[in-house]
Amino acid sequence: MQVIAVMNYKGGVGKTTLTANLGAEIANLGQKVLLIDLDPQANLTFSFYSMDEWREELRKDTTIMRWYEGDMPGREIALQDLIVTPPTVNDQLTETGGRLDLIASHLKLIDIDLKLAARLGGGTTLGESKRKFLDLHGCLARALQHERFQEYDLILIDCAPNFGLVTKTAIVASDHVLVPAKADYLSTLGIQYLVGNCDTLVAEYNDYAAHGAGADRPIQTRFLGVVFTMVKFYANKPIGTQQYYIEDVRLNGEIPVLSGVMRDSPRHFGDAGEDGVPMVLRSPVTDEVVVEFRTLAAEIQRGIDKGIAR
After folding, report:
1. Fewer CB atoms inside 10 A, N or C side of the chain?
2. Cβ distance 7 to 170 under 8 Å?
3. 58 is in which domain, residue-wise?
């Protein structure tokens, strides 16, 4: 079981569209995939459930917010008890042997970061402060060790566009980080800071874990790379201004740049979520955009396999 955090400081970069379609494509290959929606906007959740279905079936008892509530995440309810199986998309997967499950988000998840930050304070000794740091930052990683999650081939975590404590729990829990970005100034501006902040978090966590603050194991989170999204093509190449930003990130060398991209196609992605089935499952297999996305998904899987082999 491998865990990927999908994140970028900048919103509106196609993060959720990428996560939903990547999960659906891998499930369509006969694998079992779990999506965890940690973005308070809950767009990933609404890619598989309508607002009315969310209100009636999920909002009260079956969202990730309930797990993060309480004195410490997981004390109110076990994470595995929040898993749901969206029926519409899984109807499309019956002949493949794959399955796509979800842990839904809640619009009030935006308030959780402040509550988590308050729990980090109050340590009377350095050892106690380190213990609180590990307990909180490692809560999602420990929860995903439950045997219920070991049946999945892949877990994709759709993170909020920030580096708050909820996002940090996702980084600690993940084997890989995937960064969707538009090929423009604002979307690429924070990539270097994102890489630096992730490296700092991993180093601090491992330092505390190595010096006896608890029984937590060291973590090793690798960057799969940047996936450029909403790319506009001319003569089968990204338009000039976008190509400039793609090459700039590639030459910077802070993080790999995947060769596959997600092109800008309102016809394919504009109604994402309205029928509960991602584009990659509801468009013809010969469709150019579907072929491109499946090529991208295969490249991401090769990156995962390469990381496992190291």
Report:
1. C
2. yes
3. 2-309
